[in-house]
């Protein structure tokens, strides 16, 4: 049986109190649902002196549409559970890919506990570090992310390439979402596309004393089709081994209308998602045009190069990126 290390627990009642505790207790960690951090603590991947629970911070659990200066967005509190996000009528109607992603995380029990903010700030994972401390020591002293000094995925590399395995993050990037942070200097808003860094040891720009309070997702101003697809060995519980989020803006509300903008974001490659580029040839083609699917799938296959940082062979996972992208587009077309 794996035991938790000893730590203190704080139960603040509001965001300001959380920020004050983070500021005054360097090394303290935030816990909401605890579905990721607690297993990691059992594996001794961290041993904080204090956990700051968000259980009593009710202001983090709202979902509301906001209109300001001619712009509209849905503000989703970071404390909402993944189940609440996946079942919310506004989210399902305006952002079906986000509802899908939240509804595919792990299992019902975990979705009932885990929060959107926790999924956004999910720690990076690697087959060589997310093991027991005894296993890591047997490996030869751990790796860059634990007790060692070498990356077992890229032994000649100097950076940690542990993978960001969040389901919701690729979708939020594809939807041009923004991440709202509260800290000692006040509030700041960071585009989701700029929030992540290619560093498995510290893969977000969030400062130590900052708290993710909400996600702002812009309401589409044109007809849009969006999708999220993931591949895992099992149908539940597992983290994704391949994930891809797609968004197509259309001239009219029909899959036969020309595409005016498209965004494709791939996850589970490295510490940050990859925004697939060089898709200009697809602009102007109808979503239902098989040529569009071929262009997008070819770009995904060329640019998404998995590493051996999560289970399953990297060449097979690369092939699955193309397969699941094609399937996701086909399902959008079939849905009309």
UniProtKB/TrEMBL annotation:
Boundaries of every FAD-binding PCMH-type domain copy: 2-222
Keywords attached to this entry: FAD, Flavoprotein, Oxidoreductase
InterPro entries linked: CO_DH_flav_C, CO_DH_flav_C_dom_sf, Diverse_Substr_Oxidored, FAD-bd_PCMH, FAD-bd_PCMH-like_sf, FAD-bd_PCMH_sub1, FAD-bd_PCMH_sub2, Mopterin_DH_FAD-bd
SMART domains, per database record: CO_deh_flav_C (SM01092)
Superkingdom as given in the UniProt entry: Bacteria
Gene Ontology molecular function: any one: FAD binding
Name of this protein: Xanthine dehydrogenase, FAD binding subunit
Organism: Enhygromyxa salina
């Amino acid at each position: 049986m794996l035991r938790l290390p000893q730590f203190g627990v704080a139960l603040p009642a509001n965001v300001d109190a959380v920020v004050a505790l983070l500021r005054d207790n360097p090394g303290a960690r935030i816990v909401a649902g605890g579905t990721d951090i607690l297993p990691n603590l059992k594996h001794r991947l961290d041993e904080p002196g204090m956990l700051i629970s968000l259980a009593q911070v009710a202001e983090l659990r709202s979902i509301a549409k906001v209109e300001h200066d001619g712009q509209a967005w849905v503000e989703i509190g970071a404390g909402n559970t993944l189940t609440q996000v996946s079942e919310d009528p506004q989210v399902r109607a305006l952002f079906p890919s986000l509802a899908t992603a939240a509804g595919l995380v792990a299992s019902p029990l975990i979705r009932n506990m885990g929060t959107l903010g926790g999924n956004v700030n999910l720690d990076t994972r690697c087959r060589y570090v997310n093991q027991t401390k005894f296993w890591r020591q047997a490996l030869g002293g751990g790796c860059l992310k634990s007790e060692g000094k070498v990356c077992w995925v890229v032994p000649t590399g100097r950076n940690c390439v542990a993978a960001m395995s969040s389901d919701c993050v690729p979708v939020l990037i594809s939807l041009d979402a923004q991440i709202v942070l509260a800290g000692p200097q006040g509030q700041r808003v960071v585009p989701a596309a700029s929030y992540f860094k290619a560093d498995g040891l510290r893969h977000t720009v969030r400062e130590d004393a900052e708290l993710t309070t909400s996600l702002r997702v812009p309401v589409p101003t044109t007809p849009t089709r969006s999708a999220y697809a993931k591949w895992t060995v099992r149908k539940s519980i597992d983290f994704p081994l391949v994930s891809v989020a797609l968004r197509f803006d259309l001239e009219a509300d029909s899959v036969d209308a020309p595409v005016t903008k498209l965004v494709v974001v791939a996850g589970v490659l490295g510490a940050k998602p990859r925004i697939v580029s060089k898709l200009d040839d697809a602009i102007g083609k109808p979503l239902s045009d098989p040529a569009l699917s071929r262009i997008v799938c070819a770009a995904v296959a060329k640019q998404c190069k998995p590493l051996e940082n999560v289970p399953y062979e990297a060449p097979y996972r690369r092939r699955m990126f193309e397969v699941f992208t094609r399937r996701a587009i086909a399902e959008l077309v079939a849905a009309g």
